[in-house]
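Title: Comparing notes on inverse folding

I've been comparing how different people in this forum approach sequence design from structure. To keep things fair, I'm posting one structure and asking everyone to reply with a full sequence. Here's the target:
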């Protein structure tokens, strides 16, 4: 039965978690302040009240403990969903993620599954202090054994979190925190529909002049740039990666073969990043179709700056349009 609801990204994740918990009693939520408070961004609001303290657990301030406990729970057949309060807090748990979570399925020749989801609010734009606005997704995409997702809209948030929870392998689920409660990004979602997959890249705007590929919070920037470019007679095709590991670059290759140009956009620093990988793969697969070098619009290769400077650090509409002009000048 159709159940249409107009949702923000934050509310969509909340309802996606709720549906997963209703369908499977083995789904648990754990993290700092996720219970009574509902998380600092209120994404888990109301879940402890409805499902109890045995399934929505407030943990100590210890990311290594949260993830280590989740590994043990997964071995016992549970499906833990861990919240990392801010992306910059994830590094105390990096050893558990890279050495245990990512390896156990392989190490045991498939006998032990690791159905663990780690929710990671990421990216800048909220005027926060140090360690609260980073983009570490490339680090995890590099680790074999992990699936990495980065959503940009409410529909993908709702279906994607459920897809991640159903996975028998570990998933890092990156959420654009500055877009959580944006009313302008509300989407009408049929929450009663059959689940749709978010594992592949998605064409979100058709165009012919150049291709712009992005993920997470940068998708909105790319779409805003495409709307502005249209006023100048330029037609930008925009692709949302959605899943960062494994990368689904087939739609990107197809688009570049049509437009001949590619601009990759991300808030993360450019060196040794996902945009680096995209540029290398497109050059390898679409060399004879390219009319100009692949260009990248990213954060800078510095630590994330103080809040008063972040508007100069983050990729914006003007930087994307400048890259388009540079590409067209070749």
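Reply #1:
Here's my take.
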């Amino acid at each position: 039965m159709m159940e249409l609801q107009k949702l923000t990204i934050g509310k969509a994740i909340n309802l996606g978690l709720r549906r997963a918990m209703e369908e499977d009693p083995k789904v648990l939520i754990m993290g700092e302040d996720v219970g009574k408070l509902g998380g600092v961004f209120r994404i888990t609001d109301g879940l402890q009240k409805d499902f109890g303290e045995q399934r929505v657990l407030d943990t100590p301030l210890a990311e290594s403990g949260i993830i280590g406990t989740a590994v043990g729970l997964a071995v016992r057949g549970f499906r833990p969903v861990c919240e990392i309060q801010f992306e910059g807090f994830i590094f105390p748990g990096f050893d558990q993620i890279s050495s245990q979570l990512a390896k156990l399925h392989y190490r045991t020749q498939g006998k032990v599954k690791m159905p663990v989801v780690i929710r990671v609010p990421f990216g800048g734009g909220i005027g926060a202090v140090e360690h609260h606005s980073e983009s570490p997704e490339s680090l995890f995409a590099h680790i074999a054994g992990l699936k990495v997702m980065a959503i940009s809209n409410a529909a993908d948030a709702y279906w994607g979190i459920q897809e991640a929870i159903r996975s028998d392998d570990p998933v890092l689920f990156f959420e654009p925190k500055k877009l959580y409660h944006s009313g302008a990004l509300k989407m009408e979602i049929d929450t009663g529909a059959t689940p749709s997959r978010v594992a592949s890249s998605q064409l979100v705007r058709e165009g012919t002049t150049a291709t712009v590929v992005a993920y997470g919070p940068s998708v909105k920037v790319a779409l805003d740039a495409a709307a502005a470019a249209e006023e100048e007679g330029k037609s930008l095709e925009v692709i949302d990666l959605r899943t960062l590991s494994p990368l689904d670059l087939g739609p990107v290759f197809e688009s570049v073969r049509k437009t001949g140009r590619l601009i990759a956009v991300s808030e993360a620093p450019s060196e040794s990043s996902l945009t680096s990988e995209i540029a290398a793969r497109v050059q390898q697969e679409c060399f004879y179709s390219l009319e100009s070098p692949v260009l990248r619009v990213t954060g800078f290769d510095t630590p994330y700056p103080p809040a008063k400077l972040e508007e100069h650090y983050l990729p914006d509409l003007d930087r994307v349009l400048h890259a388009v002009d540079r590409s067209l000048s070749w």
